[in-house]
Amino acid sequence: MNKIKGYAVAFLLGAFLFNAIPIMAQSIEVLFNSINISVNGVKVEADNILFEGTTYVPLRAIAVILDKEVSYDADTRTALINDKSVSAPAPTPVPIQQPTGQATTGQKNALNKAKLYIDIMAFSYTGLIEQLEHDKFSHDEAVYAADNCGADWFEQATIKGKAYLEIMAFSRDGLIDQLIHDGFTREQSEYGAKENGF
Description:
globular; about 45% helix
């Protein structure tokens, strides 16, 4: 099991525990746990979060395995896994920086941790680097991971904005300022606000 402490996980659970946006870093402790998951009789490898006796499974990882898409109904507070929408435009592929040489063990581990983080919550580029540095990866390892994790930072801003709006009311400018505070560029923050109805 891997222990994680820090503001990144605080947003995931802190908002529900403290009923507020964790503008300031909160420190909580969760455990990455492995449990057996079976989908249509097929064993699925997926990291899970154990928090206060409850196991949380990453919906996005399960949806990818099922070739489905994840959405959230804020009115009923329901996470939905459905067939992919035929009319939805295909996402723009994100260029992944190819490593110039053999990756070091630290770079590989940082990249694996970055992908795990992106699966459970939204990060800005700089926010992901800061979280990995908080996890004691070097700056170079953290930058390598952020550069190669395949995240679409505009999509991450949209997801982060949606998460904020599900727990608190924001004006357009307030949401943009909050996203900028989280390390997104102004362009990414404005895009995230626009995609959430502003």
